[in-house]
């Protein structure tokens, strides 16, 4: 009984001490900042999958009875760069006529030039509609035939029209190119504003076969080949396309260099 009475006498003091401990302000450890709420930054080299933009399938422009057998597509492991082209065709078309324009481009490349398919992986019209070009599946890293020497690990998107100096470039068109670049490059964790390393597979490019080249992740065709494509007007819009694509990936304005998955400092191209 005496022990119980002693515990009861001490109980108020114990409760008071416990209350003081719970209510006392926390000590701040020198040099340690409290966490700030905010948007999490993407990890370096991490996949940044964006929703796939709407893409019209090949069946919308390719006539069923072409009289030719489509060879099987070739694939790379991933896409680390986007080449922007223009088709060097008239600009004053109605967007409803875009499938017919693509069909004629296909006929010229597979007929007159003897290619196995249309060279561009994607095409975009002046209204911002994206079309599937080369066969093989829009979700896969299809090896195109759009950039001499740099078809591996790249995607080619062609703006339907001619965009030489002084020609207006529709905002809807460049926005669509940015959305495509954000999606395709995000699958490999590539910042659209970065530079990536590719390897030339053909001496007809600006670089000898087997030579490495560090190019913008979103490049004009003229970066890898002696050409005026995609035209001075569209080339001038590439910085804004890169910036918009980076925003669509959720990257900060300042940006940071993104090493390639696997620890390399930049994505590397593959030789055929």
Protein architecture, described:
With 272 residues, this protein is an alpha/beta fold. The protein has a domain of 161 residues: 3-Layer(aba) Sandwich (Lysozyme-like). Helix content is 25%, strand content 12%. It is built from five helices and eight strands; from the N terminus they run H-E-E-H-E-E-E-H-E-E-E-H-H. The strands form two sheets. The chain has a six-stranded mixed β-sheet with strand order 1-4-3-5-2-8, with helices on one face. A two-stranded antiparallel ribbon has the order 6-7. A hairpin with a 5-residue loop joins strand 3 and strand 4. Helix 3 crosses helix 5. The longest helix has 22 residues. The radius of gyration is 28 Å and the shape is globular. The N terminus and C terminus are likely disordered.
The strand line-up of the biggest sheet is 1-4-3-5-2-8
Mean pLDDT: 83
According to CATH, the homologous superfamily of the domain at 55-61 and 73-193 and 216-248 is Peptidoglycan recognition protein-like
CATH topology name of the domain at 55-61 and 73-193 and 216-248 = Lysozyme-like
Terminal residue distance: 92 Å
- In the predicted model, the low-confidence regions spanning at least 5 consecutive residues are 1-5, 7-12, 14-44, 256-272
CATH architecture annotation name of the domain at 55-61 and 73-193 and 216-248: 3-Layer(aba) Sandwich
**Quaternary organization:** single chain
Count of beta strands: 8
Query: What does the main sheet amount to?
Result: 6 strands, mixed
**Name of the CATH class of the domain at 55-61 and 73-193 and 216-248:** Alpha Beta
N-to-C SSE series?
HEEHEEEHEEEHH
Task: Classify the beta-strand content into a percent band.
Answer: 5-15%
Question: Count of DSSP helices?
Answer: 5
Class inferred from helices and paired strands: alpha/beta
Give the fraction of residues assigned to helices. Answer: 25-40%
- Inertia-based shape: globular
